[in-house]
Design goal:
This protein is mainly alpha-helical and 223 residues long. Helix content is 84%, strand content 0%.
């Protein structure tokens, strides 16, 4: 199983390298939202600093959601998903490899970009470790939960809006905990509690969502 997982992970990585525009779109969206927001609310450092936790996390959430609509679409159109469903290998393991590759090239890049954009908003340097840890724990949850919606809507021609309606309510706990951790760090308070809850949610997401994604793909392929 580990050999199959690593081979599929390598395959998905090669495919993502061939489509750099799909990888760049969420990052460009993330950067543009944060860069334009000071123009709308004004250049006051204190105001931008106070709203930066919520702004960074909302922008990250929407950027991840933007990248998920086409997660399984190309595989659905070329028949690869049918082969996955008929394969003797566990479907949850296969979809976990695909989502992991997607997160490594989009979510992880977003985490690397976030500190630079956060400093543009006046976020103190002492808050950057909490920002990085919270995004490292939170973005995999966003990708895994979003993949459930992408699996259910992959057979629809215009499933982007339905995907957002299905998944955004599930993102609320991650948004609250991520923003809360960063807000606590900004106020000089410990953020360990929020980070531990994010770690628990990450463990639960990695454990259970591959089965939900596999079930959603089976439903979409059967239709």
């Amino acid at each position: 199983m580990s050999n199959v997982f690593s081979l599929l992970l390598a395959r998905e990585s090669r495919l993502l390298f061939r489509r750099p525009a799909e990888l760049a779109n969420p990052l460009v969206f993330f950067a543009i939202v944060i860069a334009l927001f000071p123009l709308a609310v004004g250049p006051e450092t204190e105001l931008l600093q106070n709203i930066s936790p919520g702004l960074i996390w909302v922008a990250a959430l929407l950027a991840v959601l933007l990248s998920l609509d086409g997660l399984f679409r190309s595989d659905f159109e070329d028949g690869s998903l049918e082969q996955w469903v008929l394969s003797p290998h566990p479907l949850p393991l296969l979809v976990l490899a695909k989502v992991l590759a997607h997160w490594a090239f989009s979510g992880l890049a977003l985490v690397v970009l976030a500190p630079l954009l956060a400093m543009m908003l006046g976020l103190p340097v002492r808050c950057l470790p909490v920002l990085l840890i919270s995004l490292l724990l939170g973005t995999p949850i966003l990708s895994l939960l979003g993949a459930v919606g992408a699996a259910l809507t992959v057979g629809l021609k215009r499933g982007g809006l339905l995907l957002a309606l299905l998944i955004l309510p599930l993102y609320i706990p991650v948004l609250i905990l991520g923003t809360g951790a960063l807000q606590a760090s900004l106020q000089g308070l410990p953020a360990v509690g929020q980070l531990l809850w994010l770690a628990c949610l990450t463990a639960l997401a990695v454990t259970f969502t591959p089965f939900a994604i596999a079930a959603g793909l089976k439903i979409s392929v059967a239709e």
